[in-house]
Design a protein that fits this description.
The protein is mainly alpha-helical. The protein has three helices and no strands. It has one domain. Helix 1 packs antiparallel against helix 2. The N and C termini lie far apart (88 Å).
Length: 107
């Protein structure tokens, strides 16, 4: 088996970091790793990649799509939570106002 190239090793390392960050739901680390990945990809010439490097890149693309999907699911979950909080806030505000009206009527 041929030795792994520096590019292959870097792609694999970024993939591992991306997978680990997503698994631990460390969205800041996901974002940092994504930036590093974008920077690396900006320097690569796809026409000069070896078959092993192309394979590592393809595997990373699949992983990136999975992580992106997980990020979208988390974003939806956070949106739902914020929507619920907004609805509850409106309810509490209405309740607080009704309590104020009761105090004014007693005065």
């Amino acid at each position: 088996m041929p030795a792994s190239s520096p590019i292959t090793a870097r792609l694999q390392m970024l993939g591992e970091r991306l997978r680990d960050a997503c698994a631990s739901r460390n969205w800041t680390s996901v974002a940092r790793t994504d930036v590093e990945l974008a920077q690396l990809l900006g320097t690569l010439d796809a026409s000069r990649l070896s078959p092993g490097e192309r394979g590592a890149l393809q595997q990373l693309r699949r992983l990136h799509a999975q992580v992106r999907g997980e990020c979208e699911r988390e974003l939806d979950r956070v949106r739902q939570t914020l929507d619920q909080m907004q609805q509850q806030r409106q309810g509490w505000s209405a309740y607080a106002e009704s309590q104020d009206w009761g105090l004014e009527a007693q005065a």
